[in-house]
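B., you asked whether I could sanity-check this one before it goes into the benchmark set. Here's the sequence:
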Amino acid sequence: MAHENDHQMDNDDIPVGRVLSRREALKLFGGAGLAIFASGALSKVVLAQDATATATDVLVTDCVVRPEMTEGPYFVDALLNRMDIRPDPVLDIVKEGVPLKLKLQVYDVTDATCNPLEGVQVDIWQCDAVGTYSGVEDAGFETLDESWLRGYQVTDEFGVVEFLTIYPGWYSGRTVHVHVKIRTDPESEDGYEFTSQFYFNDDLSDMIHAMQPYSEKAGARDTYNDTDMHYNGETGDQMLLTLEEWTEEETGESGYSAVFSIGLDLSDEEVGASDSEDMGAAGGGTPPQGGPGGPPAQSTETSD
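And here's what the prediction gave me:
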């Protein structure tokens, strides 16, 4: 079965932009008195003109996070508004794996501000425990009628969305990752669109992939963060998730969770341009000779 590293990849997941350092963020937002005040498990960004909190109450945030990458060949605009993306919405399929909770915070940093961005659509999609995507036809599998491990949420007044998924598996030629796309107006060609990927600690991935159902995948993982052609060193580091373990006392279920903030400069037309323009009409189009099993064909069916 062919995989991504068997072919040349020309435009899949090319990074643009960068993350501002803590010092740069201070310089950018210094006049506004940018601060974060802890509020339970979630930190709330406040533009404090006359902040009186003590140093132990205030943390400076790296508010601007813009290492964008093109969407790759496996994006399907499935229009599934849901928090738990593990099940297929129609078929009796629930993808198994180590539970992963993602809390994403989206901020508008246009004109040196840092305000929660409410009402934007955040999509995530990923492969399952054995490196397979739903909604595509591939040389190694056909999942056109399936829509597991895909979904979107709309940010609340604090710019927050939450997802429940699984720790992703791997496929040849790519390091472990989850795709993310943020759109201010997904029905308009003029809306702002940001696309990137989240990455994972390699040692943790190896530990998890030694367990069921990940261990059902044949062969050995061949690509890590430092050898992935799209991780790109510091760019990939800026999208590396910091995971914490959790356990539900009542059920005993355990897994990992991460909180990640993304600041969007809505005036940046280059970053905000559609990431699907050159990927074909189906939202993913013909891939650059890559992916698990070879070039997929996107489903032409529409979702309700």
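One thing to flag: Residues 1-60, 278-290, 293-304 have pLDDT under 50 and may be disordered. Otherwise nothing jumped out at me.
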